[in-house]
Amino acid sequence: MSALLRRVDHLIYGTADLYAGVERLESLLGVRATPGGQHPGMGTRNALISLGAKTYLEIMAPDPEQPAPAAPRWFGIDQLGAPKLVAWVANGTALGRLVGHAAGRGITLGDVSSGSRRRPDGTVLGWQFTNPRVIVADGIVPFFIDWGTSPHPATGAAAGAALIGLRAEHPDAPRVQGMLRELGLELPVAPAPPAALVATIAGPHGTVELR
Predict the structure, then answer these.
(1) Distance between CA 130 and CA 145 in Å, rounded?
(2) What does the alpha-carbon distance between residue 59 and residue 179 come to, in Å, rounded to a whole number?
(3) Contact 88/142 with Cβ under 8 angstroms?
(4) DSSP letters of 153-197?
(5) Which of 165, 176, 180 is nearest to 138 (CA)?
(6) Following DSSP, what letter does each residue of 82-134 receive, concatenated?
(7) Domain spanning 3-159 has what CATH number?
(8) How would residue 122 be classed by pLDDT, with cut points 50, 70 and 90?
């Protein structure tokens, strides 16, 4: 596994309807996502597909069982015209120090905070993360997460798929590539509009490029 793929904690696939997103990815990959849970107060819920021992694909959608949140849902999910990869998340530790390192190089990652959700089996997952609402380079620069002692979500997610590549496209590729390298991330970025994440995933239906 490449150094980059070892840093990928998860990919976020945004969709207006969770069931439709699960169906679409099952048709593409041949794996049916496991129900994940709700994000209390965020107005979203998810389903998961494991992409490795500590890597997964998160399908995220509005949660009709929660009231609409006061602020717009993360990653522009409310405005999505079609399902797509909306973000990627890198694993990290000592996130406060990382935020300071990034700020010293002109990269704003936002404050470190905590989150949680309850799985359908009752297990509560907890984590620390940099602010997902702080969008850097149109989402090509990730936010960072530290699961601490919590079980990693990949261990309970639907198996059968594997992440074999991740790349990006951006109109200002050299600048974005430089920002990523300052954060220790060797994500390839090609010049192209609009900005996009492109994941190569192998599954029972073959190899798929997911954008």
Answers:
(1) 7
(2) 27
(3) yes
(4) GGGGSBPS-EEEEEEEEETTHHHHHHHHHHTT----EEE-SS-EE
(5) 176
(6) S-EEEEEEEE-S-HHHHHHHHHTTT-----EEEEEEE-TTSPEEEEEEE-TTS
(7) 3.10.180.10
(8) confident
Averaged pLDDT, 17-35: 97
CA geometry: angle 50, 149, 181, nearest 5 deg = 65
- Residue 74 tokens read as 């993360």
Coil, helix or strand for 39? Answer: strand
pTM of the full predicted structure?
0.95
pLDDT of 1: 76
- The conformation of residue 76, written as its DSSP 8-state character, comes to G
* Whether 205 contacts 28, CB under 8 Å: yes
Tokens of 73: 């849902």
For 181, the token pair is 């390298």
Tens digits of per-residue pLDDT, 149-179? Answer: 999 999 999 999 999 999 999 999 999 999 9
CB neighbours (10 Å) of residue 62? 21
